[in-house]
Write a structure and sequence with these properties.
Length: 264
């Protein structure tokens, strides 16, 4: 592996082989999402507990302190909104040149397997990989499903992840599902778990993260289930305990409640 590629990946995936990414890119299609109205303020107290931020160039430039941050995964796809016709109709919005100018550790874009725009989104990934490989810049593929949440099952997600890896993605972000090992076993590159819509309880989040880690995920890329929680720092610390400290669900939940109590 090229030195630059290996160096950037090592910034993201820690020496224990695990990672905790914090996405704050939701505004690129949702606008001022609840509790992400001021993304810089949302992210700041969470930075000590995460390994990287997933963010758009606009928010990175305007809201993130360049002298005190974590490695950046730059969202480079978009062009749709929640009020538009089809979330899957994305294109590449940010050049590799701009990503390099911003000194990011990786770039990320969404693919929409099985949608009307499957072909376009997969070619977006292939073209991005072609260019990024020349500069030692890792590409993270996000296996998005738009509004079709019923697609989150092992057979479908395994297909998406394998295709992303085959096209050259260095990391794949996908949803947790039942039998998650069927997804990770079929993907030859690291898999991180997405959170999707906010879960009903903290315990639900900790349980699926623990299960996914046991079944082969290297970490998570969780946003709303962290910063939309009433106690985001406590949630981040509990997740970090599972990801980097081999904590059980019970131990992580106890930590969450302990930190939560100390915040009052």
């Amino acid at each position: 592996m090229d030195w630059g590629m290996e160096n950037r990946l090592s910034q993201l995936i820690q020496p224990d082989g695990h990672c905790f990414f914090l996405p704050i890119d939701h505004g690129y299609f949702q606008g001022p999402t609840h509790r992400l109205e001021k993304p810089g303020e949302t992210a700041k107290p969470l930075l000590p507990y995460v390994d990287a931020l997933f963010v758009t160039r606009g928010v990175l430039r305007s809201c993130i302190d360049p002298t005190n941050t974590k490695p950046i995964i730059l969202r480079v796809s978009g062009g749709t909104s929640v009020i538009g016709k089809d979330l899957a109709h994305e294109g590449i919005t940010t050049s590799v040149r701009d990503a390099l100018r911003l000194n990011v550790a990786a770039v990320g874009l969404s693919i929409f397997v099985g949608s009307d725009y499957e072909h376009e989104s997969l070619l977006n990934l292939a073209k991005l990989v072609n260019e990024c490989e020349d500069y030692g810049l890792p590409v993270m593929a996000v296996t998005a499903v738009g509004k079709e949440l019923e697609k989150r099952e092992a057979r479908y997600l395994a297909l998406c992840c394998r295709i992303a890896a085959e096209l050259g993605a260095r990391v794949v972000k996908t949803y947790w599902c039942e039998d998650f090992d069927k997804v990770t076993n079929g993907c030859p590159v690291p898999v991180v778990m997405a959170g999707g819509p906010k879960c009903e309880t903290e315990l639900e989040v900790l349980e699926f993260v623990y299960d996914g880690m046991q079944r082969g995920a290297v970490g998570v890329n969780l946003g709303r289930n962290v910063w939309q929680n009433d106690h985001p720092v406590a949630m981040a610390r509990a997740l970090r305990a599972i990801i980097h400290e081999n904590a059980t669900v019970k131990e992580a939940y106890e930590l969450f409640n302990s930190v939560k109590s100390g915040e009052r």
